[in-house]
């Protein structure tokens, strides 16, 4: 009897995931009918309407209140609505990603995408060496590995698959065709990234994801656990670490930035300090988010507080 109930529960869960995936795929397919600007703007307005009606909106409000206690409730609500719109845009931009990245080094500033730090891209490509690029869930972060591939700089990207297995499969296939090698986040992912660095390649990591274990750090002056993987890899291979981000500009345009390599803190033995480095990463991401708070995913439970509210 217990086995029968378990099978029913698994079937219902699978059916639920399949239904949600089909609705999402249907919506995105429908967007292809329209011009990119119209579809992206529509997705923005739609999510600004849907988002506040979901349970995640309350989590978003709590996150914003903790991060920006100095702001008024109206200011935080405006950031929340803009963040929902940003998520709508991010989903719609998947449909048009091939068309959105139109950067031409011979005609910079003429397309949708501008790039700051082209010389850094070219240096990493033309002078091969192990390196790590880190970013955060700001604006359309998916454009960064696309840009790298466009410059002939292929980076092995660590990513966390969506919980929905049908969506995860679709997203993985989409990313793989445009972004080079992908490594799903799981127990053995660190070995795959280490092999890439050992062979003189580059690795890309999102560093602002929820992590229940890890080192104790602070983010927006609030305790948070941070994945030490990047710091450990940097210490093991003594490789350069570069911050990079995407910024959403008016008119459905983007600016991609890759900054110079950062200096990582070291301990008394001269080794890269894992805990201190993890804090440096948080500080960099926090500076980005403070600059453009509406372009970060505030519905994300970075501080692991969902169970408390």
Question: What are its keywords?
Answer:
single chain, 309 residues, alpha/beta, 2 domains, seven-stranded mixed sheet, two-stranded antiparallel ribbon, 11 helices, 16% strand, globular, cell membrane, Lipid A biosynthesis lauroyl acyltransferase, cell inner membrane
Written overview of the protein:
By secondary structure, this protein is α/β, with parallel strands linked by helices. The protein has helices at 2-31, 36-50, 56-67, 73-95, 97-100, 118-126, 143-150, 165-179, 189-198, 229-237, 274-291; strands spanning 113-116, 131-135, 155-159, 182-184, 202-206, 215-219, 222-226, 240-249, 253-258. It has 2 domains: 2-95, no CATH class; 106-293, no CATH class. The chain starts with a helix and ends in an 18-residue tail after the last helix. The radius of gyration is 20 Å and the shape is globular. The chain has a 7-stranded mixed β-sheet, sandwiched between helices. It contains 11 helices and 9 strands.
Strand percent estimate: 15-25%
Q: Which stretches are low in confidence, meaning pLDDT under 50 for 5 or more residues running?
A: none
Largest sheet composition:
7 strands, mixed
Mean pLDDT over the full residue set:
84
Which of globular, elongated, flat, extended, rod-shaped describes the shape? globular
The residue fraction in helices comes out at: 40-55%
| N to C succession of SSEs | HHHHHEHEHEHEHEEEHEEH
Structural class: alpha/beta
């Amino acid at each position: 009897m217990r086995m029968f109930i378990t099978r029913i529960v698994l079937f219902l869960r699978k059916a639920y995931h399949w239904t949600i995936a089909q609705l999402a795929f249907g919506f995105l397919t429908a967007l292809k009918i329209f011009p990119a600007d119209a579809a992206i703007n529509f997705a923005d307005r739609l999510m600004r309407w849907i988002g506040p009606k979901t349970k995640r909106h309350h989590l978003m409000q709590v996150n914003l209140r903790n991060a920006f206690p100095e702001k008024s409730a109206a200011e935080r609500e405006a950031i929340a609505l803009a963040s929902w719109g940003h998520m709508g845009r991010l989903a719609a931009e998947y449909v048009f990603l091939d068309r959105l990245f139109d950067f031409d080094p011979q005609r910079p500033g003429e397309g949708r995408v501008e790039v700051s730090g082209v010389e850094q891209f070219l240096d990493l490509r033309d002078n091969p060496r192990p390196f790590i690029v880190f970013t955060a869930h700001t604006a359309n972060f998916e454009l960064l590995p696309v840009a790298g591939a466009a410059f002939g700089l292929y980076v092995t990207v660590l990513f966390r698959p969506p919980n929905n297995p049908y969506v995860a499969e679709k997203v993985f296939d989409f990313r793989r065709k445009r972004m080079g090698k992908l490594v799903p986040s799981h127990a053995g992912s660190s070995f795959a990234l280490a092999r890439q660095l050992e062979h003189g390649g580059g690795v890309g990591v999102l560093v602002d994801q929820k992590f229940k274990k890890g080192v104790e750090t602070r983010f927006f002056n609030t305790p948070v656990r941070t994945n030490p993987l990047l710091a450990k890899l940097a210490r093991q291979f003594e490789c350069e670490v570069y911050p990079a981000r995407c910024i959403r500009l008016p008119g459905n345009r983007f600016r991609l930035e890759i900054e110079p390599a950062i200096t990582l803190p070291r301990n008394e033995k001269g080794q890269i300090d894992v805990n201190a480095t993890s804090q440096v990463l948080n500080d960099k991401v926090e500076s980005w988010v403070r600059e453009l708070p509406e372009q970060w995913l505030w519905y994300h439970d970075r501080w692991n507080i969902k169970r408390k509210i």
